[in-house]
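Quick bug: Abasic site processing protein output formatted oddly.
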Amino acid sequence: MCSVFYVGENMIQKMKHLTQEIDKEAEKVKLERDIHPTDRALILRWGDHKIRLSGMKWGYPVIHGSGVLINARAESVMEKRTFAEGIRYHRAVIPASHFYEWNSKKEKYTFQRKDRSVLYLAGFFDLIDNEECFIILTTEANASMRAVHGRMPLILQEDQIEDWLRDGKVTEEILRQVPMELVRTAKYEQMTLFPM
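Here's what came back:
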């Protein structure tokens, strides 16, 4: 699961070496803050034969009812009609400094790369009600995440970004990969007063 992530002010600087174009939508994204569903975030996308940094709304509106779809399971995304166009033709990468997850006791943890570099979350987008919206892919949690939650974002290595964005032949292979190990931190450690 991924429901809140953080983008730092230096994110655009870090993205400049990956992109050939930064569009006007990227400039509208407010940085140095947590990104929640329906917020606009930075995404990398393929267009005009190059990687572009853009800005886009997070979440597909739910057809019947309120709320938004923010995640899709990597294991079954290719089979879902709602996601078919996006995953096949409009893959995206969502850069994040870190993301948060809560365990069953509602304790909040921060997850980031060991080298504190950018996390590249795999996703896709589509045009919904005349607005482009993106979804973040999730997969089964690895050892660094499992104690907190059973799901985690599908994370790409930097050298996979262009292939993910433009080469449909590698899509299913990447959807099956196990994400890298992450560092988990909490603002404070939970303690018990009574021995078990």
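Actually, after a second look the formatting is fine. The two ends are 30 Å apart (CA to CA). Closing.
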